Fold each of these.
Amino acid sequence: MRAIKPRSRGLESENVVTIDTDSAPRILFYGEDFLCEDLPIGTRVIYPNRPIAGLPNPRAAIRYALNHPEESDPLHALLYPGMKVTIALDDISLPLPPMVRPDIRETILDIVLEMLTDHGVDDIHIIIATSLHRRMADFEIRRMVGDKVFDAYAPDRLYNHDACDPDGMVTLGRTKHNEVVETNKRAADSDLVIYVNINLVPMDGGHKSVGVGLCGYESLKAHHTPKAIVESKSFMDPKHSALNHSVERIGRVCDEHMKVFHIETALNSRMFSGPMSFLMKNEDDFSEMDRMKFQAIKFALDRTPRALRREIFMRVPSPYELIAVHAGKTEPTHEKILAKCFEQYVVPVEGQADILITGIPYISPYNVNSKALNPLLVQVMALGYFFHMYRNKPLVKKGGVMIVTHPCSDAFDADHHPSYIEFFNRLLPETRDAYTLEKKYQDEFAYNPSYVEMYRRGNAYHGAHPFFMWYWGQAGREHLQDGGGKVIVVGSDNSTVPKLLGWERAKTLSEAIAMGRSHMGRSAQITMLHQPPILMTDVI
Amino acid sequence: MHPVLKKPNRAAFYDVDGTLIQTNIVHAFAWYAQHQPTLSGSLIKSAKTALSIPMFLIADKLSRKVFNQLFYGYYAGEPEDRLLVLAEELFEDVIKPSIFPRAKDLIEESRRAGMRQVLISGGLDFTVRPLARYLGVDDFIANTLEFENGYATGYLGKPFVAGATKSVIMRDYAAQHGLDLGECHAYSDSYSDTPMLTVVGHPTAVNPDFRLRTVARSYDWPIIDLRGDSRDKPARRRA
């Protein structure tokens, strides 16, 4: 591994850097480790925007938002003694990695609960809007809402949503597209639902909060389909997302039956700090200290077992800061937050790449505190999230090559992802066709009594969740592999996983690039997406 | 909203003792021992049962089959009508309070998924019958005691419902009812039931003992716990 040394000349752009003869090697995530690789001259490296400065007084900003809401009366004006209020919160999948304490949800809850108490409201339930995600454990909820709220409300008035509770769910009706609208009964029976959201990526928030966070399987399966994903260009661009359009229809039906007061927040992209702060920098700008930090971390990681590496990474919270908070009616509130999200994440890029390189980190929205980023989640990070981080056009051309770096170990967390194991080992060897899988097996997994039990009382993702993860990658698969292109994984520690995913293997990044060039031509345009932290390209 | 899947050839097979209920066949026998027609009879039978427990434990470690043969010998001489009549009382006093709180939910969920519900137990048929009725299952398979002139001989009818035999019985049952075992589910708590779990396409370890937990982890079978305290119950609270 060549030492990272600063380049002598200046950069042509802060976000888009072209590799030259004197460029430093680039750091890529490789699961719970890093790769430090030289890239071919001419490669574009796309960096995220710098984190927007956090609001100087988040508590004041939250109070201002509650008192000056969008197209709604202020929160205090909606309250009266004896009313029934449900507060719903985003779950542990946001933000990633979990933020330093106090979590922004704790800060908002403090303010909102104080206001409710002041207005004589004492019938308050706090529901973690897990949708079909796993139940959060007590220690995770405590970390999210803070000790004071947890001790006062858990477990009777602070709990996880249960989408499989036949007595706890209610069907509100159908949309004009015949989508079933199921929601949490307690929320539906409440005089007011206050939703506390975190927007980390543009697909979060808006009607997705109530319409998905509190829904049931029959409601979710209306839009979590391969068809909806393929018709979403991309699902990170709500205006062009068929998935989002369906969620909006469902959310609007919810709004007809429920009084929802939405509190949305946007966080900046300050994902790493302290010893990991070098990950937020362009490698050409590394100081001696940055190089030492990286070398020290790499040295330690290389000598640490994977499970311990994972534990260490999971224990490093992110110093995210609040950059915007708005409240009120769902749609206008979301519009303002979305604008701030795009301001943080969008990087304009000229032209698509023939070969796209990106590292896959140890974490995804679906494996916080899990024992592994299992193969299906590696797939969803590559072909789902990272592929979809675009507006206008995908960053990689149709039929192009995507190179990802991850060990792709055949490792699953049997408590968190039991149905993933069956999906991966039983279904993928039969077919990778998402449409066939949906038709033939999705309901079987969804209504498997063991998976239902593990979802309801254990800490497992819903039985149908691996299907949704596979569909998440469908647009990427069709764009790349069905278009004649390929996905190449660098550093896979086995051949089974890439084979089942339909990917090719390369031992090194250089080998993968050579394979990509042999497919796309010697003059192929190579682009590296330098993330995390998160970025979204606006390809023109 | 719970569509029944179009797969009528599916069933769920449940072991009973330790899986759906906390008690086992020894509890049932001990209860019968305590309820002899005379006080002295009850005392003698109870004492004999208590003293035999170490032997039962050793036999169970050796083989479930040996255990059953040894254990059911203690029923020798019991009048048939008495066993049958007291079975209802046994259910109310001993079995019903020991049903795991989530057992009914699991069966209900399985029924909603369109599966035939079958108990397969090493217990005696007359003790399992009231439980099967209470749980609303479609069928049950259990051991039968042989009777002669209205009195138990202490021998079980064949085949014994235990260990590997359970899988053979399940195969026969599936053939008889047109079930596809690959589509069927099975639930058990005990390593001795590994054969019945391996014969179906969807095995699940329920409240597993150490050895079954190890097997389940090795084969990536789902593991569920129907016991748990109230904190683990569905987090549904309504005003």
Amino acid sequence: MTINLNGIGIDYGAILPELIVTGTAIVVLFLDLIIPARRRGWLAAVSIAGLLAALVASIPLWGQSRAAFGDTVVADSLAAFFNVLLIVISILTVLISPRFLRALDLDYGEYYILVLGATAGMMLLAAATSLMTIFLGIELLSISLYVLSGFARTALRSQESAMKYLLLGGFATGFLLYGMALIYGATGSTTLRGIAAFTTASGLGASSNVLLLLGIGFLSVGLAFKASAAPFHMWTPDVYEGAPTLVTTFMSVATKSAAFAAIGRVFIATFPSIASRWYFPLALIAIFSLFIGNLVAITQDNLKRMLAYSGIAHAGYILLGILPGTAEGFSATLFYIAAYAVMNFGAFAVVTALGAGGDRTADLSYWRGLFYRRPFLATVMTIFMLSLAGIPPTVGFFAKLFVFRALVDAQIWAPLIVAVIMTIVSFYYYLRVIVVMLAAPDEAAVEKERVGISTGTVIGAAAAATIILGIFPAVVLNWATHAASVHF
Amino acid sequence: MVVGFAIVAAWELVTAAGVIGFRRPIYNALALVGNMLGLAVLFLMLNAQFLFAAQVIVYAGAVMVLFVFIIALMNPESDVTLGPARGSEWMYGIVFGLIFAALLGVLLVNQGLTGRSGPFTPEVINAVGNVQSVGTALYTTFLFPVEVTSVLLLIAAVGAVYLAMRRIR
């Protein structure tokens, strides 16, 4: 028996961005051994150079449809969309990192390796078209993030957060894997294309195939956990609060984006023929997320916890776009993910800039009178809060508008009504931050600290993007529409 | 065959309960060894002799021996016992577990399971051999996942070394 590799479609061009990011991680690993401890800033520079190269390599994938390696990965517009988004998030994270790593006494090369590893995993997840690669992408990003959340080795909170994330993440992975095994057992295929072919071919039989439905259910649990959608959200506030704020900034936006890429590939692309079966559970998850996220966020006095619950709520909004199963809904989802990435990254970056450790400075009382102490940070934070609340002229407004419009066009009313009511509820806790920052300052808490050029630039750019995309949303919406059209 | 499966499946359930039920880490680890051996027997019953051998040598053998060694090394004198579980957690767990089991049971009784038989029947496997079948699948169809796994292990190793080896200043 000879082994024939010609049939599986070896195509390094299709996975070039992932290869570059992984390669950069290995280069950083070796450089870390050579470079003296004082010059670790170079590791950040090398990481950024590698990420920029991967960004350039992602652009040719736009508009293509290249299935590679036995249909386990694909290079298409959707993958390119997420590649660009995830790489930009990663670059911004690395840009603001060195200064705060030094401040926390955590300036180790492993940080960059793990961020690059997580990015590679997320990019793989967005390009995955097989249960195997979906699983490996999730594991690659998860293991990197487990270690990153415990990166502050001397801080007990950080260790606790890593431990919780690891245990609950492992549990969720069990569900995910079990679901995949059941789906394989029901359909006899590990590739999404094969599964879709089986599901479509068996017609009505598929929607009463218990093995398949159970598999999809377990798979949804695993994916919803990564997207931190309720009721699989329990880990989110504790992990976000305990992890170094720098890491929270990265994982809050990047993990959610990658998880929704996989959710899109699974539900929109693989199981459209049994949409009536997954519609109700997903709608329930979305409604739960909207309720729990928005209502619990009101009671939070710690900004990291508040943003964690707000993240859960936003997972609900993003999931709403999946529900109609239409091109319009999916492009609204993609637009929302991009918008959320910009505004939430900015909000967490401001929390980081105020104090990277985030024990005391994340407390809302510390933010009292911030407008008078740190006018720049307070101003950009106001922009991010308005955008997260969905108030024009910010990108958050259009993100919600597009999702709601898709729901109206698909005549999906109950989730829409919940979403609108919960949006109004969310005004309270987002605007409260602004009110607190405007309040008269305490005389005691006067600290003069400079933001730093790179951090200031990153935060300023995020704020500018939040407003510019809020005035001209069409550019990104066109990209999102094109990326979403891959599966219609 | 069915009787054999039922016995092994029952053994699996009991040992799995032991993994989470025992209060001493060393018993948890030993229950896990038992569970993995049972899994190996299941592989054997499915005509997957190579997976059986790999499961016994790699998991039940190497990995679990390390587990047991580490637990023994960490607690040379007395085993660490975990504190008692809180009552409410047990209650929630049992209630939701029962609901879940009832749902599954209703589904199974009403609909039955319809798995799909794949191309790898015992005859096909025996014609080329167990090891070769697994090897061919790993290095053709699943070549890319195998390569990604190597990256996964590298990143995991970097993370583990960071958490374990970096001296706290």
Amino acid sequence: MFPIPIQKRPLINRISYKILVPVSLFVWLIPLIGIMLTSIRGLGDITAGNYWGIPSEFLLFSNIKDVFQNTPMLSYIINSFKITIPTVIGAVAISCMTGFALASYKFKANLFIFFTFIAGNFVPFQILMIPVRDLTFQMGLYDTVTGLVLFHVAFQTGFCTLFMRNFIKALPNELFEAARIDGTSEFNIFLKIVVPLTRPAIAALSVLIFTFIWNDFFWATVLIQGQHAMPITAGLKSLNGQWVTVYHLLSAGSIIAAVPPVIMFFLMQKHFIAGLTLGASKG
Amino acid sequence: MGWFSTTPFLNVPNSTQITYRKSSWWKLNQQRLTPWIFLFPGLLLFLVYVIWPIFNSLYISLLQWDGLSPAIYVGLSNYIELLDDEYFYISLMNNLKWLILFMLAVPIGLGLAIFLNQTIFGIRLIKSLFFFPFVISQVVIGIIFSWFYNPRGVIGPFLDKLGLSNYAILADENFATYGIIFAGIYPQIAYCMILYLTGLNNLNTDQIEAGRMDGAKGFSLFKNIILPQLKPATFLAIVVTVIGSLRSFDMVAIMTQGGPYGSTNVLAYYMFETALSEYGYRMGYGSAIAAVLFTIMMFYILFFIYRMYQSEKKGL
């Protein structure tokens, strides 16, 4: 155990540690606490400069109602789901297959393809921007949810393949061999052995990709123009321009945007962290 | 390769020979073809949407093109123009500032992880709350901080006390970039922290105990025994931090849009602004900026791949 467990330290250390942890947590979360406090305030507090004091009115719900009534926030959220969920399903399904192919078959181009997926995953978005936008235009999918989803699925396939391949590679190969000797076809090996065994990896990837895509802003800006397909990140940005002074509404909007990934994170915390750090034991 | 010999070549009635041959061809080649069938959808999408666009962008960087009228081939003149572009240098310098300051996220994340690697009541929840900023969209982080910095916003009362009333860091061309980097590093610290927490969890206890028996304590224990074991976590933390620092688009777009006077531009945002905004549709010039950014990133990608390749060779 490193550092030495606090329980083995003198009493004074233990007490100060227990005080220090919540204090540092509070300091760390000050920006977030600030925005939460603001989201429950009324315009009166904001104009009076009461940012840190006790809110004179509790208006969280009315602020949220305001946001939904006076802005297309609801349609932004629906669009975010319409973009995020198909992307998660598509990218995970496709990368189960690519991951399996790269993990359990030996062929010449194997490592080359694997490294291509990894390299592509790290590429700066800007080098893809113009051709992808053009391509989407030509397919008639510019400014549509479908166009954005297609790109997201393709791009996330890189990271997902890296992840799935390493996971499947760590499964005992004897399982596949035994099934082959029993005459199981390769497709059934995939469906009946690999997919059930990779469930934890599928869960981890799903939460991660959900968060990545939900939070995407760049591609939403490049491939979407109108409100009808705009996800919440781009929507918030456009509200940010209109609402420079109406911070209590902007704060409420930000909180609404943050809720789904935060819920996802707390529900699937173990998987989320396993997903983020899988590479930490590999590297 | 035992399953090949189990293919039954005998006892096959003549009438079914043709169908049998088909399935036999499939059976014989199943091992060789299956990976390609599984790879097909993913590889196709990836080639169309990621690999081909890279080369296409490099080609567009040799054109003069507004996206609508016919493109004119101009050779390297976009790159030559870059050499004299003041805003390009400002962006490049800002990228450097991002890169250097972002690296602080690695030691700070390590420090936080060590600080929190205890088992007291509620520590799991505390760790998750520390990790919180990483889960939230950068757009939201950007909004939070723009408002945090606003002299008539949250920070206002503190500024008044410091005698800096009405000081807006995001409007100060000398310091605005640092204001954005500070906001950007916030979630990055959380990310590094979680990587190190996992690393600390996987430490080899025997080695630590042995080290302690030998009298290693405090910093020397940390430096000689802990840090080497955390190497995989450090490697990953550095990789994701470098990449995060070069993907600074979201923060800049939300907080300043490159201003004041272009002083907070970074290559990622400057490229977007050149190619796709009210400042004009200069696809060729934008692509040249993207190509520079790509080249910088390529060093890290190749370094990462080299490391992966080394560990693959060990594994095989």
Amino acid sequence: MAQTEVKTLAITGNGAVSLAMKQVDPDVVAAYPITPQTDVVQNFSQYVANGDVKAEFVTVESEHSAMSACIGSAGAGARTMTATSSAGYALMVEVCFVAASMRLPIIMTTVNRALSGPINIHCDHSDSMLGRDSGWLQIYNEDGQEAYDATVMSFPIAEHKDVRLPLMNMYDGFIISGAIGPLKPLSAEQVQQFIGQAPDYPKLLDAKNPVTMGPFDGLHGWYFEQKIAQNIAMENALDVIQDTYDRFYELTGRRYEHLMKYRMDDAEIVVVVANSAAGTARAVVDKLRNEGIKAGLIKLRTFRPFPVKLYAEALADVKVVGVMDRADSFGAPGGPLYMEVLTSLYQEGQCAKAVNFIYGLGGRDVFPQNIEDVYRRLDAIAKGEDAPRERIYVNAKGM
Amino acid sequence: MTHKDKTTKEMKWDISGIKNWGPGDHELGSIIPEAGNARYYHTGGWRTEFPIRDEETCTQCLFCYFFCPDSSVLAENQKVTDFDYDHCKGCGICAKECPADAITMHPESELAERVKK
């Protein structure tokens, strides 16, 4: 490990990410404020005003324009970042597809917040799940430290020649974005060394080698093949992400993987969950283990690309898996994460029992007792109780 | 030699075989690595009427050249020489704007006999 002594800061999740942005010092940030992301770019605008960074900060009139400005900026070869939440992300989504198909490595922080309606500013994952088919890499983070680290690690991943895709980092609105937690930051020099120079690629504003970007595909063109190429890049990203995680471990001693296993070695009942609820779930696992219940936990980090084989491997010897979704897909067999886990098992020929738990919509609290109830239900199913095919709602009123 | 033959030979981006290109053969992100090659794509096919200019009536005011929305009035040494029928869409703006009424529109079916390509 390169570091012997690292100062620990007490800082909010948003503060941690804006610090990472300051240390990265991208060429361009184009953003529009929205709760609970606002202070990410608010802090950054302060860094710009203070002359702490060289970045061009573009204030725009909407998130649609923010992402459009990012596309122009990244197309010109500039390192480009933005941040959003909820309805702001929803407004971006049309252009997010364009960013991905143009293969522009834009880095975006999406602080998870519910989508309307009823109008709600609190945390769930329905915003980022809305864009799961937009062609962006998606990384979910438990706390401010993970979000900080992920921001730094984003650049070598998104800019890699075999990937070249935009990337979004998620963490929970308010629970993480506004709450103060510990952060062990890198130095600005370490960040710069880790991310390196942005690689050279065809640029819109290179007068000596002019190109056309974003052309009309024609009436009988190659749209289909370009879409296949995007999926190939997603598959390539699996190795590139893990390689980057490994390189980060060498620097910091902080280990990251596509999915983070906790007490999984002999686990019989397992919960899969993303973001901040994973911290609560670990405490519950410890309690159940003390009782002799073989409980385990998988924390999702990489959602796009979805590491199918790793989930199948991790769940190979498990009796019952409970997938906790903080977003619903109305009318679908279950929440988005549930469907992906189930598909992963099926594709690898496994038939572990799997139950879907929907929790935390619109910021509904998820207490240790709620997660313990989830494990107790899984335990009962492992012992012979029928596994329900329909969703189980966690801490919903009147259920 | 038609306009098409001339332009195809000038194009630098080798797209021979593009009809069979797979996902790995295309430029990343649909980039076209050669600027200005839209001229190689002939867009005159949906024309129903084509313009003819009467050399004797024309005053060389160049209104048609400036008004044409498709850059399809060809000029050399500040004099109109011809129309680019590969890209002219037959909108008739040149005929409408011509102060000398030197440009007239004719049914597309007569193109072959009226215009030497």
